[in-house]
Amino acid sequence: MPSIIPGYVYTLFASIIIGTLIVTSCAFSAANIKREVEEQQLYNIAKYVAAKSVELATSHQTENFTATLHLGLPPLIGNQRYHIQVANDSTRAWVEAGFGAVVLSSQKRVDIPVEVAASGVYVSGSGASAFLKYSFGAAGASLLLYGR
Predict the structure, then answer these.
(1) Counting Cβ atoms within 10 Å, is residue 55 exposed (0-12), middle (13-18) or buried (19+)?
(2) Which of 30, 58, 76, 93 could form a disulfide with 88 if both were Cys (CB 3.0 to 4.6 A apart)?
(3) Strand, helix or coil at 130?
(4) CA-CA distance, 77 to 42, in Å (whole number)?
(5) Which residue in 111, 102, 91, 113 sits closest to 47, CA to CA?
């Protein structure tokens, strides 16, 4: 009889190990799905800011014009802070988005297909609302993103 008991004990330990592996793999899968959803939300916010920028720039082309638009951005994505930055170089303007309060270059970039000088950063979670300010004057079109 004593030789049969170790077989049950080994089976019990093997079941515990396999159960732990299954639970761990499910937890990793759920975390991966959550991360992908949050990255998609961040990309959608960048596309929204780019679309609002185009809307402002194309609807108002008169001299000495200034308009400010409130952006209804969420304070957090999941439980993470994020940042939105608008910038340009000599050829194009774009919106960048990333997680965290430190503004770094990000892979989440959406082009703004209008000729505009763009600048500004908005960091979420600071209690501020995001605004886009568009100005068109003798120097050309400019776009400013800020939080207030």
Answers:
(1) middle
(2) 93
(3) strand
(4) 7
(5) 111
Contact status, residue 145 vs residue 120, Cβ threshold 8 Å = yes
pLDDT tens-place string over residues 73-95 = 999 998 899 999 999 998 899 99
Q: Decide: 66 and 57 in contact? Cβ < 8 Å.
A: no
In the chain, % of residues over pLDDT 90: 61
Beta carbons of 110 and 95 less than 8 angstroms apart: yes
Q: At 47, is the secondary structure helix, strand, or coil? A: helix
Number of Cβ atoms within 10 Å of the Cβ of 69: 13
**Whole-angstrom Cα distance, residue 7 to residue 44?**
55
